[in-house]
Amino acid sequence: MTGVLFNVALAVLVLGLAVWTIIAREAFAAVVGFIAYGLLLTLVWVQLQGIDVALTEAAIGGGLTGVLLIGAAARLRGIEAAPGAERPRNSLYWMAGAVSAAVTAVLVICVLALPDPAPTLAHEVALNIVDTGVANPITAVLLAFRPMDTLLEAIVLVFALIGVWSLAPDDSWGGRPGPVQQSDPNGILAYAARILPPLGIVIGIYIFWTGADYPGGKFQGATILAAMWLLLMMAGLSEAPPISRGWLRVGLVAGPLVFIAIGFIGVLTAGDFFGYPQGLAKPLIVAIELALMPSLTLVLGLLMVGAPQRVAKL
Amino acid sequence: MNAATLFGLCAAALAGLGLFGLIVNPHPLRKILAFNVFGTAVFLLIGAIARRGAAAGMGGDPVPQALLITGIVVAFSATAIAVALLLRLFDVTGRVSLAEDATADVQAPPGEA
To answer: Of the given ranges (A22-26, A251-255, B10-14, B93-97), which has the lowest mean pLDDT?
Structure first.
């Protein structure tokens, strides 16, 4: 009974924060609401027994997305009155309301009409997970049963970074991304940036390593490492490398390239792209994760910093 | 009502909210936010369906759950691109507006006071 009450309270809070995010007067306030919304969603994922999804939502959905949006909202803060002139007509409000209500109504009907018993692949996963050598079913799905999704996802991240970089003005191309951070070297931010990273690095690597058998994995671990890097950059203790650096570009694509290479090894040894030879599944999965981890950390960190804006000193 | 149905219905409401915000909010950053609310609603719906597939000692169907992790990461990359485009638009035009005549009337009238 208390569980049901908790869930209902959680759902009401999540909906309330979503309403706030949509209708808040100021963009900055809306972003703050969205971050709280992301954190509460993490609890929803725990209630839905998706601990791995909860970790990802907390790290990426709420965390990184929140920092990204709040940075943008802070930069655009003074000028948000400008679009007031183009406020939509009342008829648009009514039409949008009707369309949205219809979408919600259709989804409600679908949720209530879901088949019972529900179709599931859990049995197949349970049958075949032994062959992969990993104990966490999510990791088994991500890297053994459906590795193509994970590969394309890693490539999408690199493409997104190329897209962000390509927005650089011509004279900044190849330079350091992001603004110059100026902060008090004795301030609290610099202090936190000296104290937290050793702990964060240990936690990030632990979450990465434990992903084979328990909830966790490379994306969540890489996000924590990227967050530590961002903290150093925001405190002005470290600067993002110029995007023309050779080692940086090699580092960004190394993970996906190793991933693709292991896929082709499967063609030669097991007769299928991403087929793992008998008994070698676990070492190959660990190899993919080890290769992806540094690339993901670089990509996630640099996606947060944005396009180069300063004139490049080549 | 079990958790899966409850949060499934919650996801349906969130989808409507996100879509509404996406259409009526003129501010591009607010559109990005609303689109993210809409995205999380889709994720939550899939999560509720995954929870219903609990079997073989697992709390949910691990296949959709793994797809969700992929989805959340891809949604983040799309948001990063959208924010970068928005900031570049602001750098170039000095305004944030998607209106087609945005460059024509640089001296926009102050908001509806």
So the answer is: B93-97
Q: What is the chain B residue with the closest CA to A56?
A: B69
CB A266 within 8 A of CB A280: no
Name the DSSP letter for residue A83. G
Global confidence as pTM = 0.88
Percent of chain A at pLDDT above 70?
96
Tell me which chain A residue has its CA closest to the CA of residue B38: A18
CB A154 within 8 A of CB A295: yes
Closest in B43, B50, B86 to A72, CB measured: B86
Cα A222 to Cα A205: distance, rounded to the nearest angstrom: 8
**Side-chain-facing half-sphere of B85: CA atoms under 13 Å:** 13
What are phi and psi for residue B55, nearest 5 degrees? Answer: -165, 170
Which residues does chain A have within 8 Å of residue B109's beta carbon, measured at their own beta carbons?
Answer: 85
Q: Is the pLDDT of residue A82 over 70?
A: no
Peptide linkage before A117 cis (omega within 30 of 0): yes
DSSP A278: T
Q: Is the dihedral of CA A195, A201, A204, A209 positive or negative?
A: negative
3-state secondary structure of A25: coil
Q: Are A282 and A134 in contact (CB under 8 A)?
A: yes
CB contact under 8 A, B62 and A160: no
Q: Is the dihedral of CA B112, A72, B38, B54 positive or negative?
A: negative
Residue A144 DSSP code? I
> Is residue A296 within 8 Å of residue A251, measured between CB atoms?
no
Give one DSSP letter per residue of A162-227, joined into a string.
Answer: HHHHTTS-GGGTTS-BSPPP---TTSHHHHHHHHHHHHHHHHHHHHHHHTTTSS--HHHHHHHHHH
